[in-house]
Amino acid sequence: VGSRSLESIRGDFPILSEKINGRDLVWLDNAATTQRPRQVIDRLVHYYEHENSNVHRGAHELAARSTDAYEDARKKTAGFLGAPSPDNIVFVRGTTEGINLAAQAYVKQYLKPGDEIILTLLEHHANIVPWQLIAEETGAVLRVAPIDKTGQIILSEYTKLFNSRTRFVSATQVSNALGTVAPVAEMIQIAHAHGVRILIDGAQSVSHMPVNVSALDVDLFVFSGHKIFGPTGIGALYAKTDVLEAARPYHGGGNMIADVTFERTLYQPPPAKFEAGTGNIADAVGLGAALDYVSAIGMENIAAWEHTLVQYGMAELAKVPGLHLVGTALNKASVLSFVLDGHETEDVGKYLNTKGIAVRAGHHCAQPVLRSFGLEGTVRPSLAFYNTPEEIDALVRALFELVRR
Ligand code: PMP
């Protein structure tokens, strides 16, 4: 992958050497969460051993260190996404919190009964339910862009959804259930041509391909640290400056204020305005280390290697008798969802576990899209750049054994 051998990359990830049921772990559940390299784990240890303090408030050496480390992570996140400034980055718990923040603090104030929000059929529940909540509160309605039988957004149908009542669009860049890479550059342009702002859910994209929020001209963008080799409980919301200025505070408390009296409160400018209370300082620092790690390998290199793996995986899985791939869009990342004739998805997952192979089986928090294929669940191997063709071979071998039993 780039200039690094797979063997040396895998050596960075201690957990990849685990034995599961007497076998080498084959981690193919990267869409649920990725594993962490030593560099991220060490950074967390270093933080707690040498830097730990609350940020901003204390006038002492450790407060300076922790503040520097936290703000440095914000700079790294901005740089990684191609954001104009670290001030455009709000640290959140993850994609879910980022989308809820966008819905509650920004979009809700503009909604009147009958106004419309456009989503797509590909969405994870995290990009459906927050919009339903504000729709229920305001009388707005959700419109859903359909997909074709490969699992790709039908752009002409998406375009037709816009009208004078459209207030906002929220769409995923990569489907966690099918792996479809949506044409978000076009979707953003189309939204803007109609004068509508758009949020892109990057939970499944940032670890698999280069993303530049400025080149995309996207208004809001969210991702989770744990899906890009960083810690759990930390993620980032990018938004354009005017969006952050127009948004109301999401949570109230310390850190986000400039001045408080019982009569009124003056807020800090963004991003502090959205970061009430003590944040997840250590894990933000760990996220910074994760972004450094993937940047050193190169997102282009990661994307190229994973493209090879996905193509290989699709071709090999298709050889298994009775196996049907779900999600066959030409532009696809990481996810190899399938169903197997005569076998419940959960049973396939359990069988693979006996071979040390970790996959997800079920609805993957994306029930609407699976139901559009007439399914309640799939088996979902999902790849990261540290996976190998040999691991795909192990998966396919185990599936052959299962169908021959
Ligand atoms: N959106 C997508 C596309 C996802 O895959 C996920 C995680 N499965 C989420 C949102 C939610 O992310 P988190 O649970 O980290 O908040």
UniProtKB/TrEMBL annotation:
<dbReference type="GO" id="GO:0030170">
    <property type="term" value="F:pyridoxal phosphate binding"/>
</dbReference>
<comment type="function">
    <text>Catalyzes the removal of elemental sulfur and selenium atoms from L-cysteine, L-cystine, L-selenocysteine, and L-selenocystine to produce L-alanine.</text>
</comment>
<keyword id="KW-0032">Aminotransferase</keyword>
<comment type="similarity">
    <text>Belongs to the class-V pyridoxal-phosphate-dependent aminotransferase family. Csd subfamily.</text>
</comment>
<keyword id="KW-0808">Transferase</keyword>
<protein>
    <recommendedName>
        <fullName>Cysteine desulfurase</fullName>
        <ecNumber>2.8.1.7</ecNumber>
    </recommendedName>
</protein>
<dbReference type="GO" id="GO:0006534">
    <property type="term" value="P:cysteine metabolic process"/>
</dbReference>
<feature type="domain" description="Aminotransferase class V">
    <location>
        <begin position="26"/>
        <end position="395"/>
    </location>
</feature>
<dbReference type="GO" id="GO:0031071">
    <property type="term" value="F:cysteine desulfurase activity"/>
</dbReference>
<dbReference type="GO" id="GO:0008483">
    <property type="term" value="F:transaminase activity"/>
</dbReference>
<keyword id="KW-0663">Pyridoxal phosphate</keyword>
